[in-house]
Amino acid sequence: MWSGPPQPDEGLPTGPSAVSVPWKNLGPSKGHRESPGGLVEASASRKEAQAEEHTAAAPLDVSRLRSSSMEIREKGSEFLKEELYKAQKELKLKDEECERLCKVRAQLEQELEELTASLFQEAHKMVREANMKQAASEKQLKEAWGKVDTTLFSEFQAWRASPTLDKDCPFLERVYREDVGPCLDFTVQELSALVRAAVEDNTLTIEPVASQTLPAVKVPTVECHNTNTCALSGLARTCHHRIRLGDSESHYYISPSSRARITAVCNFFTYIRYIQQGLVRQDAEPMFWEIMRLRKGMSLAKLGFFPQEA
Length: 310
Fold this sequence. Notes:
With 310 residues, the chain is mainly alpha-helical. It has helices at 36-145, 150-161, 170-183, 189-201, 256-276, 284-302, and strands spanning 204-208, 241-245, 252-254.
C-alpha cells in the first residue's frame, strides 16, 4: 500500500535538476484511448474518401437519370397521343350526333309549324261554323218565343227557383197530367200503376231478353212469361226486353212500343233530377227548351212513334 509521497532514490537528482526526456506519441496503444485530435483527423480522412467515391459515381448516376427521363418522356408522349386520338374520335362522334339532332329538330319545327297552321285554320273554321249555328239558334229561339206559351215558362221558372219532385207543384202537375200519365197508361192497369211508381222512385230496370229466361209471374188475364206477348199492352208482340220493379225477382216482358214509352218518361225524370241536384248549370231558356224536347219525346212515344232499334 501506498502510504505517502514517493521518496527520491538515493543518488538520483531531484527537483529542477532532473533530466527531461522528450515524449513522442507513436500511436494508440492497446488499452489507451485516442486523443480528440486524432478522431477529428480520422473522420476528416473518411469524409474525403467518401467525397472522392461520390465524385467518381456522380457521372454514372446522372447518365442513368437522363436515360430514365427520356424513357418517361417517350411513354408520356405515346400516352398523350393515344388520349388525344380518343378525344378527337369522341368529339367527331359528338359532332355527328349534334348534326343529326339539329336535323331532327329542324324537321320537328317544320312539322310543328305546319300542324299549328292547320289547327289555326281548323279553329277558325270551327269558330265560324259555331257563330253561324249560334246565330241560327238565336233566330230560332226568337221565333219560338213568339209561339211559346208564357204560362208554361212562368211555371217552369217558379219550379227552377226551388226545384222539387213534388208532383203537386204547378209545373210538374201539368207535365204529369199532359205527358207522364198518358204515356204510362197501358191496358193492364195494375201493372201500369206499379211501373209508374217504380219510374217515379227510380227503381225500374230495363234489360234485354237473355237466351235463357227466368220464370216470370202472371198478371191477371196476361201471360207475362211469354216472350211473344207484351205484359203491359197484352198484345201479341215479339219482346226483346223485360222490366224488373225494385228488388223483385219477377220479370215482365214488354214490346218495343211499351219500352219506348217507359224510356221517354225515364229520360224526363232523369233530367229534372239533375236540375234538382244542381248538376245542370245553364240559363233558364236552354233548360226550358230541353224539357220541352223531352215532353215532345213522351208525346211521340205515346202515339207509337219510336226508333226501330227500340
